[in-house]
Amino acid sequence: MKPGLHFGILTASLIGLQACEERAFQPRTLMKPLPAIEDAPFVKAGEVKSIADRDLVLALTLDGHARAYPINMLTGPRREIINDTLGGTPIAATW
Amino acid sequence: MYAAQNPKHEKRLVFQVSGKLWQRSLVMRDLQTGSLWSHLLGEAMAGPLKGTTLKPIPSIITSWGEWREKHPNTTVLNLDPSARKFDTKAWKDRKRFVLGIEIGEKTKAWPFDFLGDNPVRIEKFAGQELLIIFLKESATAFAFENKTTIKSGQLDEGLFVSDDGTRWDLWTSKAVAGSQKGKNLTRVYALPSYRKAWLDFHSGSLIAGEEQEKQSPDSK
């Protein structure tokens, strides 16, 4: 086998490997897992404190039920996922 | 926003922040199986549920004022705020945000600044007719599948008026007046996110209004 050809095969396989690795799941660990949020408190629109009309909310309706999650309450590692149930459907509120 | 169950695990999955990041984005972990999930893809990347996905639930990001007005009976999460910065001013730097849609293997992003200039978009993507509507004031982006005969339209006092004069309520997806009254538009799952985060995960994504909508270069 000519050295040149060999090199070509090697390069091709390395490029292939690299392309694979780019999609590979290799997360970085920054901290220990945080407690899951279940049973978060919800109130009616008129009863919520600490929210202004211009504040952004993540919101949805499901089977006739409307729910809003103020983004300012979902911010920070401890708050990024709210385990919730709406209209009988288990949901993970996150964005 | 995901359904917290899937055909491989029909009982509820409870998610926690795993403490891991992948491509600068949150990795979730479920307490039931310990599988690790990409937050942006909704797919288990490792663990017993690897390869399975969570069904995305159409949701929207809008202002509290707008949502409450349209949904007076809404309930709302009531925790102490953990930030203060996310109000409608946060969208001011519109270039930083996109509305992303994934259909099959294809992805496309509509930058908010583009949507600000083009608040009604009717276009074909990945074999589907899409109707994308943007309310500039609250930076609320709606995405529908256009199964109707709508070819164009405009916004009028928060309603979408299609070319045949039908008036559509964006929040309920229903035609409230006009020849198509009573008909429904179908919501498409669309994700408002940081442009950078979207492109990190979907490097081949089309970008509306850019480079003749050719594929974005995979610039890392």
The DSSP helix count of chain A reads 1
Let me know the number of strands of chain A: 6
Low-confidence stretches of chain B: none
Strand and helix order of chain A:
HEEEEEE
Give the domain tally of chain A: 1
Give the strand content of chain B. 35-45%
What is the N-to-C order of secondary-structure elements of chain B (H for helix, E for strand)? EEEEEEHEEEHEEEEEEEEEHE
Largest β-sheet summary of chain A: 2 strands, antiparallel
Strand content of chain A: 25-35%
The residue-averaged pLDDT of chain A reads 81
Number of helices of chain B: 3
Mean pLDDT of chain B: 90
What kind of sheet is the major sheet of chain B? 4 strands, antiparallel
Q: Report how far apart the termini of chain B are.
A: 28 Å
The count of DSSP E runs of length 2 or more, i.e. the number of strands of chain B, is 19
Query: CATH topology of the largest domain in chain B, what is it called?
Result: Rieske Iron-sulfur Protein
